[in-house]
Structure formats: C-alpha cells, structure tokens
Specification:
With 196 residues, this protein is an alpha+beta fold. It has two domains: 103 residues, Deoxyribonuclease I, Chain A; 72 residues. Helices cover 29% and strands 18% of the residues. It contains five helices and eight strands. The strands form three sheets. A three-stranded antiparallel beta sheet has the order 1-6-3. The protein has a three-stranded antiparallel beta sheet with strand order 2-5-4, with no helix packed on it. Strands 7-8 form a two-stranded antiparallel ribbon. Strand 4 and strand 5 form a beta hairpin. InterPro entries: Endo/exonu/phosph_ase_sf.
Length: 196
C-alpha cells in the first residue's frame, strides 16, 4: 500500500499543467492514473486549489527562446492524509536545481503533541522605545536567574538542580506597549508587512 508518493514525474496530467497549454501524452498519463486509482492517491495541490490553480514547478526555454512552464513535481497522498495536511508550498530554491521545491506538512492523528513554545511578538514591536526598555529589562532579569541556577549547581552539587526559570516578559506584555490606535492588521506606515 502506498500512502504518499512524491517527486519529479516528468509528465503533466492535464492540458492546463503546461504553459503554453499542451495535451499530455496519453500512455504515461493512463499508467499514472491506474496507479493512483489502485492506491487511492490524490494530487494534493489540485485537491486543495482546484484544477485551474497554477502551480508550475519546472521552467525551461524552448528552441525559439520562449519560456515553457509545467506542473511536473507533485505530491500524491490518500484522502485521510490530505485532511491532515497543511502548508502546501512551491518554493524557489535558487541555483540548486531547475525545479521548484514542492512541500507539505503532514500531521497524522497519532502525531505526538509537542508542548507549545513561548508566544512571540511581531518584530515591529521593538520599534517602540517602551518595548525596547522592557525587553532589555527582562533579558537582564533572565540572565540573573540563570546565573543563580549555575551558582546553585556549582555550590550545592548534591542538591537537585533548579531549572525553573520564568521570564516575566511575554508577548502579551510587549504588545501592551504598543500605542493605542495601532491595530492587529495594519499599523500606520507599516502596511501588511507588520501584520500579526
């Protein structure tokens, strides 16, 4: 049984998988379709974004110099895995390859839960002097608490270590330093770049 199949298939599945449009070769498409049906595999990108959702992953120049684009790098998966997936992306990776990287995150039901990390504040928060001062104060306080733990471990090696350090500077506290009138979606002068 195949649960996930991914890679460079070197064949398009449909006419709109190429630009300029071109009908794909019948034999390889029929063989691929038979394999997908036998293993109940779906093209994740097409399922999520529709048949017309352009996701060209390969580009080259024709003999006449025009550019050709095609959707030949794909991820196929079973429906239950598709329902437990997110972050489907096509990423340009530079000179490493002539293909775009196709990726997705799969989080099956049995995936162990990892404890939430610290909440974060958007980077633009540090533009505010009050937030800068608070961040410096919290960093100094955290450094002092860590030094205490180290001294305790060195002076009392037989005692259980104290690892509980609380940084009293949370994202919520930092965000409270933002002046009134700045909204979560579009701070003045920042446009969409600072959205949080």
């Amino acid at each position: 049984m195949v649960h996930i199949l991914l890679g460079d298939f070197n064949v398009t599945e449909a006419i709109n998988d190429r630009l300029p449009l071109k009908r794909p070769p019948k034999g390889p498409v029929e063989a691929l379709n038979a394999f997908k049906m036998r293993h109940s595999l779906l093209n994740g990108w097409r399922q999520l974004y529709g048949a017309d959702g352009s996701n060209y992953t390969f580009s080259c120049r024709n003999r006449d110099g025009s550019r050709l684009w095609s959707h030949i790098d794909r991820i196929y998966c079973e429906k239950p895995l598709l329902d437990q997936s997110c972050e489907w992306q096509t990423t340009y990776v530079g000179a490493l390859t002539d293909h775009y990287l196709v990726s997705a995150v799969f989080e099956p039901e049995n995936t162990p839960f990892v404890v939430k990390g610290r909440s974060t504040a958007p980077v633009f928060i540090t533009d505010f002097p009050d937030a800068q001062k608070l961040l410096v104060k919290c960093t100094i306080q955290l450094d002092e608490e860590l030094k205490e733990i180290l001294v305790h471990a060195l002076l009392e090696p037989n005692q259980p270590p104290r690892y509980a350090v609380q940084a009293k500077c949370s994202a919520r506290v930092l965000q409270e330093t933002v002046p009134p009138g700045w909204t979560r979606s579009s701070p003045p002068g920042r446009g969409d770049a600072a959205r949080f």
